[in-house]
Design a protein that fits this description.
About 35% of the residues lie in helices and about 10% in strands. It has 16 helices and 13 strands. The protein is globular. Belongs to the SusD family.
Length: about 500
């Protein structure tokens, strides 16, 4: 896999690299395509190689830390318990769950660095005489990375290739960044390829851009608000645009997959809009499975016994909801590991009960799980990507698009059509049909369908549910809807201003 590395100090982002600690995680070195600096500016490179590097680097989305953890651990769907000395890591996980992070948090810095660094790689490609199609793909990918910076931090630094390594990057406000990103995607759309459903969709396409435009306009009230914490006013014209963009995605052949777990496998699925290219989403099962659940053909190593869900979230599912559980573990090659939420006694593929190799007790996953001092069996585990399925990580999928359209119709006042779409999904998932729709129903359905996919924080903020007390959350101050600008970034770029509260 190639990775573009530019030999310069990205002053707004790359003050100093701090690799966040992670239990049993091995980071492998990659081959690199080097983009050098000459004089006061950064030279350009081969656009084909640079574009390939951008796609190879999509693996950043399936890491269990940084980008994913900022969007997921800060929500009410996940908890990262410290188990003895495991997953302590100087408190980086616990502070995300409790909303007590600060400007020195390693994963806040790493996310800032990575997202801004990837966006600059797109700048390099755009300055390298790309074809119209290559330029469109670079703009779409740049928009995706800038979107995450805007969403997390509320301001976005930008430096073009011709500014020179010593120039301080300009800083876009959240409102300015929103406009810039929308412009990027709008300009890119005509030249992006029209791609339909596939087993792997690791190329920026019209459907990918339209899905991102839908998400942007669904959250426009948040990103344009004078107060990041709200309250938010959702304009009907913006909701109409969400519907337009969602319909454009469907027109390219994408749709709900009647089999909830199929999109997370190697199979073709109408749900797969934009996927990772390289490797497998291995972190997604290793981060939650118990040490003693490995050792079978699809996962020979010992998992990391990390993250769990909260009983409060698990209880939102009806017993017959297809998204809650599927028994597959006793099939050949599945190692006793089922799909969905794992609770109670765990088994081998031959139905032998697993005994915890540390405690010497039966491995029984419990509903309760403390944030600190958790024993090895505590917590309900979650498997969407199964090691036996060899799937690719999903960055955008149609179920999200379907729910964005549902929410947009609801916010625009078309509750009858919104309820119809909501129940179309619930019927596919074997859940009882809803008789009415409101904010709580809408947010709950997004969680039931999209759990552990890294977007729960954004959803909770939009619905005004982020700053509330639940298990082990100790800080509910409104300022936490934005992360701090990393202290190292502020020290190196005086154009950046720290977000309120930090």
């Amino acid at each position: 896999m190639k990775k573009t590395i530019s030999k310069f100090t990205y002053l707004s982002a790359l003050g100093a690299f701090a690799l966040s600690s992670c239990t049993d995680l091995v980071v492998q070195e990659k081959d690199s395509t080097i983009v050098k600096t000459t004089g006061g500016s950064t030279t350009t490179g081969n656009p084909t190689e640079l574009l390939n590097a951008l796609y190879n680097d999509l693996g950043v989305f399936n890491d269990q830390a940084n980008l994913y953890s900022l969007g997921q651990h800060t929500s009410a769907e996940m908890i990262p318990p410290t188990r003895g000395v495991d997953w302590g890591d100087n408190g980086v996980w616990r502070t995300l769950h409790s909303h007590t992070w600060d400007a020195t948090h390693a994963q806040v810095l790493n996310t800032w660095n990575t997202m801004n660094g990837r966006a600059f790689q797109c700048e390099q490609l755009l300055a390298s005489n790309p074809s119209p199609v290559q330029a469109a793909e670079a703009k779409a990918i740049r928009a995706m990375y800038m979107y995450h910076v805007m969403d997390f931090f509320g301001q976005v630094p930008r430096r073009t290739v011709d500014q020179g390594v010593d120039a301080l990057p300009t800083v876009l406000t959240r409102s300015e960044a929103f406009d810039f990103i929308v412009k990027d995607l709008t300009e890119a759309l005509p030249n992006l390829p029209r791609l339909g459903p596939a087993a792997i969709n690791a190329r920026a396409s019209k459907a990918m851009a339209n899905a991102l435009l839908a998400r942007l306009h669904l959250n426009k009230a948040v990103y344009k608000s004078a107060k990041p914490e709200g309250p938010y006013t959702f304009d009907k014209a913006d909701m109409d645009k969400v519907v337009q963009y969602c319909d454009a995605v469907k027109a390219d052949g994408f749709d709900l997959d009647p089999d909830f777990f199929n999109p997370f496998t190697a199979n073709v699925s109408k749900d797969k809009i934009f996927t990772d290219l390289q490797g497998s989403p291995r972190n997604r099962w290793m981060m939650t499975m118990h040490y003693d659940q490995g050792g079978f053909d699809a996962e020979k190593d010992g998992p990391w016994n990390g993250f769990a869900t909260l009983a409060e979230f698990y209880d939102k599912f009806e017993a017959n909801d297809a998204r809650r559980f599927r028994e597959v573990g006793f099939q050949k090659g599945y190692g006793g590991v089922h799909k969905g939420f794992l609770i109670g006694q765990q088994f081998r593929e031959d139905k032998t009960p697993i005994v915890d190799s540390r405690s010497k007790k039966p491995l029984i996953f419990t509903r309760d799980v403390p944030l600190a001092g958790a024993s090895t069996e505590k917590g309900i585990r979650v498997i969407k990507y199964h090691p036996a399925d060899f799937g690719k990580y999903l960055i955008f999928r149609y179920a999200d698009v379907h729910l964005m359209k549902t929410e947009a119709l609801y916010r625009a006042g078309n509750t009858a059509e919104a309820l119809k779409l909501l129940n179309e999904l619930r019927t596919l998932r074997k859940a009882t049909t809803a008789t009415s729709i409101n904010d709580d129903v809408m947010l709950r359905e997004r969680g039931l369908e999209l759990y552990w996919e890294g977007i729960a924080r954004t959803d909770e903020i939009r619905f005004g549910k982020f700053n509330r007390k639940y298990q082990d959350v100790t800080n509910i101050e409104p300022y936490t809807v934005l992360f701090p600008i990393p202290a190292l970034a502020i020290a190196s770029n005086t154009n950046l201003k720290q977000n309120p509260g930090y």
